[in-house]
């Protein structure tokens, strides 16, 4: 069993030897790293698009509201009392009240025929309480249950919920999530194959060197070590390139996105990967590199034996 110092020295040699191998074959190494980087940047870019879509959805679904039309003859005091009771419900974020007089004034201003409305013998509009529920994730079923509970109150004549468009938006987001996983899985498999093929060619090119090493007593673990570190470097460099490509793409898109948001009087800004997501991408890239090299070494190293 090797001493700890000798074991660490062997790993250090393999670590830097594998890095030097990439340096000595710059064109082939650059092409492999470019393929890995592009393959990882595509699902990472889809993930960023999905994250921004969910961020937009989080802003849009705050417009979900339950409109309570109170029964005819409900006084303003009764409406205010109902609003105070609803405000204490933990499922409700905030409540807005609209008296019949306020509703008639808003209708007159927006419809453009205020004279005709003024000619009415009485105000036909009911008192309205607008309820904005708490939204934590995709709680469409809970919001529907809240609507039914509010509709059952004795003061309420009708309760309307504008939730269909939010459910459609969530359905689109769900499809996009599945697409990211499918595309990411396929491209992750492609990275494994690219790294595995690169390591396989390196093993075949060094087959005679490997035979000599086995003749003088080198173990499979000793021979395998530099190839595994080679996969590590390919994965790490490919992940860094993917982050660079993603950053450049976001910089190119940030200006047009900000301009479009400004046209809609929005302060929305395009967001990219945070620090934790970037670390996860690098970690996955390294795992793909190590996995591809491990599969290639395990399969081809056993076939090379000194004759």
From TrEMBL:
Membrane-spanning residues: 27-50, 179-199, 232-258, 278-297
Pfam families registered for this protein in UniProt: FtsX (PF02687), FtsX_ECD (PF18075)
Source organism, top-level taxon: Bacteria
Keyword annotations from UniProtKB, A to Z: Cell cycle, Cell division, Cell inner membrane, Cell membrane, Membrane, Transmembrane, Transmembrane helix
GO biological process: cell division
Any one of the GO CC terms: cell division site
Membrane protein topology class: Multi-pass membrane protein
Subcellular location: Cell inner membrane
InterPro entries from the UniProt entry: ABC3_permease_C (IPR003838), FtsX (IPR004513), FtsX_ECD (IPR040690), FtsX_proteobact-type (IPR047590)
Stored NCBIfam families: FtsX_Gneg
The protein, known as: Cell division protein FtsX
Organism: Acidihalobacter aeolianus
């Amino acid at each position: 069993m090797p001493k700890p110092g000798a074991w660490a020295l062997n790993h250090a040699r393999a670590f830097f030897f594998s890095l030097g191998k990439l340096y000595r074959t710059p064109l082939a190494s650059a092409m492999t790293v470019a393929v890995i980087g592009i393959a990882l940047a595509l699902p990472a870019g889809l993930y960023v698009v999905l994250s921004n879509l969910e961020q937009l959805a989080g802003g849009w679904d705050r417009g979900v509201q339950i409109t309570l039309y109170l029964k005819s003859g409900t006084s303003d005091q009764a409406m205010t009392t109902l609003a105070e009771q609803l405000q204490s419900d933990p499922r409700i974020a905030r409540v807005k009240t609209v008296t019949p007089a306020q509703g008639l004034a808003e209708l007159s201003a927006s419809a453009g025929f205020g004279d005709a409305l003024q000619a009415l013998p009485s105000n036909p509009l009911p008192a309205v309480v607008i309820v904005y529920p708490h939204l934590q994730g995709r709680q469409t079923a809970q919001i529907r249950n809240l609507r039914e509970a509010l509709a059952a109150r004795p003061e309420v004549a009708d309760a309307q919920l504008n939730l269909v468009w939010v459910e459609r938006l969530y359905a689109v987001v769900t499809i996009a999530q599945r697409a990211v996983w499918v595309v990411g899985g396929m491209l992750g498999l492609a990275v494994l194959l690219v790294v595995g093929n690169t390591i396989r060619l390196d093993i075949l090119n060094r087959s005679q060197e490997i035979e000599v090493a086995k003749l003088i007593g080198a173990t499979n673990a000793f021979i395998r070590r530099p190839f595994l570190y080679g996969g590590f470097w390919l994965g790490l460099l490919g992940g860094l390139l993917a982050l660079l490509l993603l950053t450049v793409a976001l910089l190119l898109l940030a200006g047009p996105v900000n301009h479009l948001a400004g046209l809609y009087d929005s302060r929305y800004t395009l967001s990219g990967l945070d620090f934790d997501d970037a670390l996860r991408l690098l970690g996955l890239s390294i795992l793909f590199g190590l996995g591809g090299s491990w599969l290639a070494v395990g399969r081809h190293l056993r076939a090379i034996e000194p004759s």
